[in-house]
Design a protein that fits this description.
This protein is α+β, with helices and mostly antiparallel strands. 38% of the residues lie in helices and 21% in strands. The protein has 15 helices and 14 strands. It has helices at residues 56-68, 172-189, 229-249, 294-302, 308-319, 321-329, 333-341, 346-355, 364-372, 377-386, 394-404, 406-419, 421-428, 435-445, 452-463; strands spanning 6-17, 71-73, 79-83, 93-97, 103-112, 115-128, 132-135, 149-152, 159-165, 201-211, 221-226, 256-261, 266-272, 282-283. The strands form 3 sheets. A 9-stranded mixed sheet has the order 2-5-6-9-1-10-11-12-13. Helix 1 crosses helix 4 (294-302) and helix 2 packs antiparallel against helix 3 (229-249). It is elongated. The chain starts with 5 loop residues before the first strand and ends with a helix. The structure holds zinc ion. Zinc ion is lined by residues 23, 26, 28, 40-41, 43-44, 157. Zinc ion (ZN) binds at residues 23, 26, 28, 40-41, 43-44, 157.
Amino acid sequence: MSSTEWEAVIGLEVHAHLKTKTKMFCRCALEYGVGENTRTCPVCLAHPGALPVPNARAIEHTIKLGLALGCEISSHAIFARKNYFYPDLPKGYQISQYESPLCGPGTFVIPTADGEESVGIVRAHLEEDAAKTVHAGGATGRSVGADYSLVDFNRGGTPLIEIVSEPDLRSADEADRYLRRRWQTIVELGVSDAEMEKGTLRADVNVSVRKRGEEGYRPRWELKNMNSFTFIRRGIDAAVREQIAAYERGDEIEQSTYDYDPDTDHLTVHRSKEEADDYRYFPEPDLVPIEPPAELVDRLRGEIDELPAARIRRLTEPVGFDVAEELVMTGKDWKADALARDGVEWRIAANTAMNQPDFLPENAPALAKILQANVTRDALNASFAASAKTIISADDYLEQTAVSDESALDPTIERVLAANPDQVATYRGGKEGVLGFLVGQVMKETGGKADPKVVNRLLREKLQ
Ligand SMILES: [Zn+2]
């Protein structure tokens, strides 16, 4: 394709389940993998007269995430009814936010190799998830070939945050970086597990193309319910490829919703613009507006630790952007930080954090001591293998290293040989099995601190 002539225009809508003990508007427990329809009540089953009560923790999580994404926090957010009919929605409407969301607008800044990239956030709002429909004839394996569906209401009413970005991303790579950064931010804040395989993080991806330098946007395709970083990247590439091909054939692009099939790497129309929904939003009469006090917003802001973007920026100085990004995005930067705090040179600290992922916080001072003693990487790896995930004693380790020094062992070996003339004669007579006894004697003399391999080799040399 003429990629120099065309550019992609990508916007994302990401939904993440919030990590709360109970549902958004009732006290049913949120538990994954429990029996179907065992976590329900009159509120989430929409019995007549049942009234919703908002989950305070979900509101706090949303504000915290909004702050981390660089959003303004609304002082007057309103819940609205989004009306549509579907079997997984017993009320006949979803409680969401429409004209007055809790967070937005804002700017999420992503450090890159060349500086940084800003992605506009249109809004981040709070809503409830629908229940889960299971097509009995499909992949459940329970009733293959059946022509009915089952609904599990355990998921109905799960608090959900929807984050809508401006169409500021220009390639699948940029979208991927943005999504991963935001995923890392969400996970570190502790507001969501954001596990794509469990469906707790899903994205709708809007893709269009335009000629470079062109103002405004052309009609877009929406790829619905994407739940893997890889498929999102491939779905964007497929949409860009197919749209450019269509324009170059002289065809028009219609605004539509598409499904991406990862098996064929193709897109199929899900629904076209003419069938677009009109949800007839109106303010939810059973809930008062959310007016978060300034003290609450300040407290939540105070609870946010240094965010991934800030850490990447800080670590770029000592180790360069690529290493900084890898450390932060794999969640290993705190290990490098701990080592550097204990005096290890940054480059070595970063390397060790990436190559020794198992070490624990309490090991950092001991490990720093080992690293500063110029111990070889092999020796270090051996020490880790021997004491995997336990606390390493650098003192023991360094003592052993010192004893393995050949000249330090020499007098001990001479002493053992002089004390055991019979065994020496036996060895020299061709019975090498006796060497084990002599190694044992040296080990005993050194209090077990010597490296048996080194002792073995030195004894052989002396006995030749
Ligand atoms: Zn309930």
